[in-house]
Amino acid sequence: xxxxxxxxxxxxxxxxxxxxxxxxxxxxxxxxxxxxxxxxxxxxxxxxxxxxxxxxxxxxxxxxxxxxxxxxxxxxx
Length: 77
Hints:
Blueprint: H1 4-22, H2 28-43, H3 49-59
Helix pairs in contact: 1-2, 1-3, 2-3
């Protein structure tokens, strides 16, 4: 059974893969959005690096997507 540290490492790798895929430099705001989303995807059942990475890439299409109210946001306009 994977440990908490192994889960954390996998989620971190998924966020790093998102940055590589979109060829953008990491920044705090994007990282906060992506890390929160990765944790949410994990809690919803995505358990592999590939699954979490695919969900991040498909949900946050480019860096601009981390700047607006994210699909995981409960914000009301």
